[in-house]
Amino acid sequence: MDALFVYMTAGSADEARRIARALVEERHAACVNLIEGMRSVYRWQGAVEEASEVVMIAKTTAAGFDRLAGRVRELHSYDCPCIVALPVQSGDAGYLAWIGEQTAPA
């Protein structure tokens, strides 16, 4: 099982919680960490913008990434949400097994 940490952002704490709960309840992610207080500066549609965001880090598998990303796009308010997968190089065997168990179809 290839574990992934999926880095995402949301425009509000409420949106991040809603997305995180759906991902875990629907078994797309074993866990989603929410980190509030991030400030982003970015270029969008030709202008430099600045906004508060919430970081979401979902724990999932490589096999489940496309389903997770699709569900995030369905739930997200952004036209182009940040959804970036980072491979887990190594980790505690029990924790990695737990990710696989929690994201397996029921």
Describe this structure in words.
Helices cover 33% and strands 40% of the residues. It has three helices and four strands. It has helices at 13-25, 65-75, 93-103, and strands at 3-10, 31-44, 47-61, 83-87. It has a four-stranded antiparallel sheet with strand order 2-3-1-4. Strand 2 and strand 3 (47-61) form a beta hairpin.
Concise account of the structure shown:
The protein is an alpha+beta fold and 106 residues long.
Oligomer: single chain
Averaged pLDDT: 97
Strand order of the largest sheet: 2-3-1-4
- The proportion of strand residues reads 35-45%
Unreliable stretches (pLDDT < 50, length at least 5) are none
Shape assignment: elongated
Helix content: 25-40%
Structural class: alpha+beta
Number of strands: 4
CA radius of gyration is: 14 Å
Q: How many angstroms separate the termini?
A: 17 Å
The major β-sheet equals:
4 strands, antiparallel
- The secondary-structure element order is EHEEHEH
The number of helical segments is 3
